[in-house]
Structures are given as structure tokens and as C-alpha cells.
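Batch manifest, entry 17 of 40.
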Amino acid sequence: MAPPLHYDEGNATLRWVVGFNAGNVNFDATLQLIDGGSQVVLGTWIVDKNSWALGGGIAATQTPDEFMAEAASKIGVELSTSRKTGRIGKQQR
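Output type: C-alpha cells
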């Protein structure tokens, strides 16, 4: 998996009090999943997330970890669908 291109936890207080991108959270990465046995690339995803620009309570609670978990969940669903539809074969054990 490629390392994050941009990871910034920002400042929750600035997001809450000032808003308008002050203290903004950013997580931008290119993720690539490779089958360990065959070295086949199963997928490549671009994740480009940042906190709500206007600030306030919603933006103050957003974190890069939340963005990563959301991306992982979406990728998992996509991989599961790909396997069910035959675009990705079953693992040989």
C-alpha cells in the first residue's frame, strides 16, 4: 500500500471556533491492494478527504482515522462485490 500523500490532523478548536478551513483535517492517499501470493493488483483507490470547510461541531469531530476507516469499509464492500461477480477469483489455499 502506498503511503499517504497528505495526512494532517488539523486543529479541532480552530475548526469549531473559526471554521472556513482553519484547522482543517486532510487525508489524501493512493491505496493499492496486491494479492500476496500472485502479486496481482486487486485494486487501486484514491482517497481525498477533508473536514467540513464551514467548521462547527461536525468539522470539529472529524479525524483522519475516521476518513481511513470509511475508505477501508468502502474498499471492502467493493472487493466483496468484485469477488461475488467473478472479477476477482477465489483464493487458493
